[in-house]
Automatic annotation (TrEMBL):
GO terms assigned for molecular function: 7S RNA binding; GTP binding; GTPase activity
InterPro entries in UniProt: AAA+_ATPase (IPR003593), P-loop_NTPase (IPR027417), Signal_recog_part_SRP54_M_sf (IPR036891), Signal_recog_particle_SRP54_M (IPR004125), SRP/SRP_N (IPR036225), SRP54 (IPR022941), SRP54_GTPase_dom (IPR000897), SRP54_N_sf (IPR042101)
Nucleotide-binding is among the record's keywords: yes
Highest rank taxon of the organism: Archaea
Species this chain originates from: Cenarchaeum symbiosum (strain A)
Pfam families hit by this protein: SRP54, SRP_SPB
Protein's name in the database: Signal recognition particle GTPase
Domain AAA+ ATPase as annotated: residue spans: 56-232
Cellular component aspect of the GO annotation: signal recognition particle
Amino acid sequence: MDVRLVKEIAGRLEERCVGEVPPPGLSRKDHIVKILYDELAKLLGGESEFSFKPGRTNKVLMLGIQGSGKSTITAKLAKLLTRQGYKTGVVGADTYRPGALVQLRTMCERSNVEVYGEEGESDAPAVVRRGLRHFGDSCDVILVDTAGRHKEEGELLDEMKRIGKAAEPDLALLVIDGTIGNRCYAQAEAFHKTVPVGGIVVTKLDSSAKGGGAIAASAATGSSVMYIGTGERIDDIEQFSSTRFVGRLLGMGDVRAVLELAKRLEDGDQDRLKRISSGKMTMDDFYQQLGEVAGAGSLQGLLENMPGFSGSVQTGKIEQLEGRIERWRYIIQSMTQAEKADPDLLNASRIKRIARGSGWPEHDVKELRKGYNNSKGMIKASKGRQMQGMLRRMGL
Ligand code: GDP
């Protein structure tokens, strides 16, 4: 990757990681994950897809070097768009590689996508012009596949420029081989100079490659990744998701759960968080924290997505915990303000009264008190930063 870019990213990361204090409830590790995500997502341009303009033909030019998976992704995209209801046509303008047109036709045949091409013709811009004329306004989208190799790089780029003029594309999609890594920046920059790149596709992400080159390609062109290729079969294409991608890059699964938790904590009541981290949590605070961690009833999803957690939580236990949280709501409602503010007041006679008032056995009230005490002790020990630890103390 470009050295300037690396320096720039590293500098920003260091500044933020050192300078920012994690909000109470978020571990330092998760906070760093969030900062990393923020910065990488900024480079990747967030999540985006091409917005097709209705009522007219949208022309998409596919760019990329030979072997990047350009023809394959063209066929995949044609099928995907067809399934989404767009009438799609393909122009095969790779007039350089022998067999390119046959390959494209074979791949598109099964999804009933028409491919226009001229076997034996070497003037690619002319093929593009005639191809576009052939489809006329019968299509919503026309994908134009191009050559990826010439005797000289200069020749290839010159041809792209001429094809760009002939096609006047609404979108130029740059296809990047996810396994090539650090050569992406220069490659993307060179293509971008010939035809302004509006989106990126990263292929071969089914391999062990992490696709870090996508970040370089995004930075070089100022455009976002739109699709990824995840295999050799025609259906192995996905809309790009930056949370999944960054998770993969960091080797930790989907980072969405961490981000959502961070957001909830940031949006949360600062007074309450301050109270909790200083060891003065009330019963209401405890309940609200639990609710936040559990999310909108999706504790399972949260934990499954939480790095290091997936697979460790059994469904039965989740239901058990959700049931417990629900019970505790009724029990807490039966407490007086004084008891909620200072749960140490909960002695045997108060417990008996609360049990009667809430309709739950004393055993459950005691369990709540124990959960509260465990959590409070744990938060104190970790200075309030260990939400995951809290869940573990809850028996998960
Ligand atoms: P082009 O020269 O850029 O048009 O590249 P092709 O579409 O011919 O693909 C080059 C090779 O990469 C072929 O063997 C494809 O089967 C393979 N390929 C393309 N996309 C993927 C992908 O997402 N995953 C894997 N594993 N292989 C891919």
